[in-house]
Amino acid sequence: MFKKEIIWRELLFQSLEKNRHKFQQKQLAEQFGFSLSTVFNALKKLRETKALKISGRGFEVVSPEKLLYLWATERSLGKNLVYQTFVAKSPFQIEQGMPDKIIWGLFSAYRNRFKETPSDYDKVYVYSSQEQLMEIKKRFPVKKGPVNLFVLRSDNFLDNYGYSGTLAQMFVDIWNTNYWYSQEFLQKLKEKMNL
Prior knowledge:
Blueprint: H1 3-17, E1 22-23, H2 25-32, H3 36-48, E2 52-55, E3 58-61, H4 64-74, E4 81-85, H5 91-96, E5 103-105, H6 106-114, E6 124-128, H7 130-139, E7 149-153, H8 167-175, H9 182-192
Parallel strand pairs: 6-7
Antiparallel strand pairs: 1-3, 2-3, 4-7, 5-6
Helix pairs in contact: 1-3, 1-4, 2-3, 4-8, 6-8, 8-9
């Protein structure tokens, strides 16, 4: 994931899940170990789209929805894909076979966070470190068939949000799929985010 996406995810997490809307660029730079210019550049499009309001030494997220849709349109799941295979099991059985401390993605993240789903799903996405990836490959080796297990590369900060990530991460990742059930998940996520 790009550094700007890491910053956008944090802004959305704070705005949508913690009801915190005011930030300082310096604080974000220190939090992630990024340069001030990286943070400044990450905020450029947000300023242009009026998702942010700049004031004095800080800024305020005034439209989390604009930020969410901007990230969704720029997100590319394919760039983070590190492994995929067919597993002749149900999604729930695949999830049960995952290593401990895996970070759930997309539909599995929704199910694990809310203990329900708006629809059935047949694809499992997880985020993985390199170490976990080796274990996943042992448990779910490459097999021919319709791919239903996708492993995405985790960034250094994703595990700070727990095993189901953030609502915004779920949303933008699901937005970038075209499965018949994706829209049902997106609609429910919008309700949970009060959008």
